[in-house]
Structures are given as C-alpha cells and as structure tokens.
Amino acid sequence: MAKVLIVYFSKTGNTGKMAEYVQQGAREAGAETELKDINDTSPEDLLNADGIIMGSPTYYGLPSNEIKELIDESVKFHGKLEGKVGGAFSSAANTGGGNETTIMAIIQALLIHGMVVAGTSKGDHYGPVSIGSPDERVKSQCISLGKRVALLAEKLTC
Amino acid sequence: MAKVLIVYFSKTGNTGKMAEYVQQGAREAGAETELKDINDTSPEDLLNADGIIMGSPTYYGLPSNEIKELIDESVKFHGKLEGKVGGAFSSAANTGGGNETTIMAIIQALLIHGMVVAGTSKGDHYGPVSIGSPDERVKSQCISLGKRVALLAEKLTC
Amino acid sequence: MAKVLIVYFSKTGNTGKMAEYVQQGAREAGAETELKDINDTSPEDLLNADGIIMGSPTYYGLPSNEIKELIDESVKFHGKLEGKVGGAFSSAANTGGGNETTIMAIIQALLIHGMVVAGTSKGDHYGPVSIGSPDERVKSQCISLGKRVALLAEKLTC
Amino acid sequence: MAKVLIVYFSKTGNTGKMAEYVQQGAREAGAETELKDINDTSPEDLLNADGIIMGSPTYYGLPSNEIKELIDESVKFHGKLEGKVGGAFSSAANTGGGNETTIMAIIQALLIHGMVVAGTSKGDHYGPVSIGSPDERVKSQCISLGKRVALLAEKLTC
What we know:
Four copies of one chain form a homotetramer. By secondary structure, the first copy, chain A, is an alpha/beta fold.
C-alpha cells in the first residue's frame, strides 16, 4: 500500500478544494493518504511518502513562495527522494494566467529530486488546472491525478 | 510607422481567426501590417518587419512543426532580428492542454533571436490563449497583443 | 525485457554520439534497444517501444522541426503511448543557449502523451546536455539516462 | 537617465558577483543603478526603477524562495510595473542543473507584471548563467545584460 502525501497552499480555498479531490482519487486507488497544509509541512514529511503531490495557486506563473520554501528546505534530503512519484496542480484566476507554467515549475523541482512524473493523454496533461473555483471537470481531473500517482507509487515503491 | 508581421499556422481556423484580431489591434495602433499563412512565409519576411507575432495551435505543448521549421530556417539571419519586437498566441482544445507552454516556446525562440517581448498585467499574460473557437474575451486579448507589439515596435525601431 | 527506442536528429554528429551513449546505458541495464535517425522513424515505431528517448540539437531553445514533426504526426496514436517511459537529451553550442528548455520541451510533449518521465538528483537533472562535442561527463550522463529509462520501463511495462 | 535596480539573493557569493557585473554594465550604459540584496528589498523599490533585473542561484530549477517572496509581495503593485524593462540571471552548480529554467521562471513573472524583456542573439540568450564562480565569459554576459536593460529602459521610459 503506497503512501501518498498531498501538500498544498491555499488562500481562497480553491487549491485546498482541489487537494481534497486529489486525496479522494489517491484513496480510491487504494493508497494511504495524507493531506497537509504547507504551513504544517516539513521536509521530513516528504521522506515518508512514496508519492508527493504539490498544489499551489498561480502566483506570477509560479508556485507561491511558501511552496518554494518547502522545496528549498528539502535540499537537506537531496538524493533521498529519488524514485518517488510526483505530481502537481494549480488554481488560477484566469486562462492564460500562468497555471501551466506553475505546474511545470513544480514538476521541474520534482524531476531535480530524481522523482518520477506521469502526464495524462486526457484533459489537463501536466496536472489539473482550475480557473477560479473547481468545477466538475476540475474535480475529475484532480481525482485522476490522485489515482495516477497512487497507482504508479504502488508499482514503483511497494 | 512600424511594420508588424503576423505569421500563423491554422488547421481548424481558430488560430487564423486569432491572427486576424491581432492584425486588427496592430492596425488600430497605427502599424502597417501583414498577415501571412506559414505556408507563404519565408525567413526573409522576418527581416522586413519591425514587429513579428507568431501564432500556432497547441500541438503537444509546443508550436506546430510548420512554425518550428520557419524558426529553424531563420537561423540564416541569426543576429539580424536583434531588437525587433515579438509576440505569440495559441489556440488549444482545452484548458491545461499546453497552450501556455506553446506560447512560451515561441517567446523563447524570439528571445534567442535577441528580440524584445512584452507581457501584459491584464488577462493572458504571456500571450492570448483561445480554448476552442475565439470568443469576445480572446478577441480583445488578441487586439491588445497587436496594439502592444505595434506601439513597442514604433517606439523601438522607428 | 523492455524495448527502448532512441530517436535522434543530428547534424554535426554531437547529438548522434550522445544517442549512442544513451543506447549503451539502456543495453547495460538489460533492455533491447533500437537507435533510429529521425529520418528513418515513423510514429509506428513509438508504438512498439516501452521506453522512448528523444534527442535533438538545441535549435532556438526547442527541438529541431524534424523532431517536432514526428511528435505532431504521433497524434494519430494519441492515448496509445500512455504509461510508456520517456526521456530527452540535447546538444548545444553553448551554456545558457537553450539546452534545458529544449529538453523540457520534449518532456512536455511526452507528458502530454501520458508518458512517465524520471529526472535524476545527480548531474543533468532533466536530461543530458552536451555543450559542443560530448565529453566524459556527458557520456556518463547519457549512459545514466539510458539505464534510468530502461529500468523504469522494465518495472512498468514488463 | 534610466534607473536600473539589480536585486539578488546570494549565499555563496557567486550570484552577488554576477550582480556587480550586471550593475557595471548598466552604469557603463549611462544608467543610475542600485544594487540590492533581497533582504534589503521591498516591493516599493520595484516601483521606483525603470529597469529591474533579478538574480538568483538555481534552487531546484527555480529562483530561491526569497526572490519568490518578493515577487509574491509585489502583487500589491500589480499593473504599476507595466512597461518597465526586466532581466534575469542565475548561478548554478552545474550545466543542465536548472539554470535556464530559473531564468525563464523570473522572466515569466516579469512578463506577468506586463514588463518588457529582451533576449540576446549572442551568448546566454535568456540571461547570464554562471556554472560555479563567474569567469570572464560570465562577466561579459552580465555586463551585456546590464547594458541591454539600461539602454532599453532609457528608450522606453525616459
């Protein structure tokens, strides 16, 4: 049974809502899940997970500095996250507002940790994007991401 | 009076429609404009323009290979486009489908040519994105891009 | 035994040399490998592989249009590459010349196909970069990429 | 006379050294310059400059969270930086280590502020990259960036 950690920062609640849907997907795929607000998360939490999914609002086309701070602090475990499975999602105020680049920024950080990332051929390819409050489409994309990471983590690390 | 070239590839007509709106914006800002299908465009056309705007559908998160071919061929004028003004736009099948990365890919190529690129603090920050057929929001973003490039080209090259 | 396909475009021979090293790594990890020049590659070849690694020189911060053409043509198998393992590498004329964005561009396309991509915590994180002719450092990065993809493909698809 | 602000974060001194070279270039181009450590910089400082250049070490393929925090806080002036000129540079431990994506991440943020960014057809196209301690090549790239931003800011805002 894979352990999947979902870490998020949310100010308006949109990213937080997405995080819950991602957790739901991971759970449905049989994973043990943990949902953590960035403010309650330490680099140590990353060590204990088989899959790590990070969510952030789109702030200037990049993850919020709270998310970036966790990533920077995780350097103390550089090399220790190798082979774990990663994923990312983002909420944004509008289309073309930097949501994809936010997700790709997180994915880049995860790749630099030596992690494994899977896209999807259906829907939000890099990771789920919500324009404003998450609707049914976004919900299903988030559930799909949770499942994808959980199943891959199960295959790779269990 | 600045000369603005809009080059586009369009299969379904969505990117072509966006291109017309971009042209409208550049014209309204007082530029002399040229709208060219990628199939009628040669690297020489890039030389004669003060502003160059490229539009492509989102194909695997990147501009179509027809657009990329023009970019590759433009190497024969490497250094000659320095200081010209650039811009990019894209149409895509869905949100999160790679539209922003397509626009950023074109912008990267333009920066490598030494060109000058302006974002916008309002709306589609990197460049206009249409999800499916361009609506009123997209139209106004395209017009805004055309104006932005025309005015900047006027300031910088005339 | 996983099948790993290495597809490359090479004009000066640098990317081709890297491709051979990547093949060597995949072979050492026990994979059945195929090394193909882009001019001899069709979308069908992608279907038959468990792991697909693409290499391109850095042309304006992006893969060459020959590589992009294969990617565009692969749309006829959209959804069929889901879950396969991917990787990318690039040679460039100089540091800061667009090599990382070239690799990330390929990775984005592979993610959009629903493929699985692994970074590395050691060395060239997104994929091997050669500045000019590949030296010993580049050789070892290429071998490492070949192994990484082969082992992951073995785990995931066999 | 344009005012150019260079903001940087530096731990090992490499990015700080680059910042000094960038300042030298801006000065040689006739600009009034200010060099500020990120810890002494507030969003208000961005308002007063015609050109803003940000430098960061490469931390997981992105600017350090200190730089990101300034960017996030600058939202209080969203729209007020429109039309200013921007630039970015980064130092990294190794080639392929995320330096280009760090620079592009900063550039994305600047574009979202509606700023104007110029690449260069010579050398480090997106912005200067130092692998380890800055050498003569890096020095000249940094001076070139300083000049580029200063001259463009002079043209656009004075």
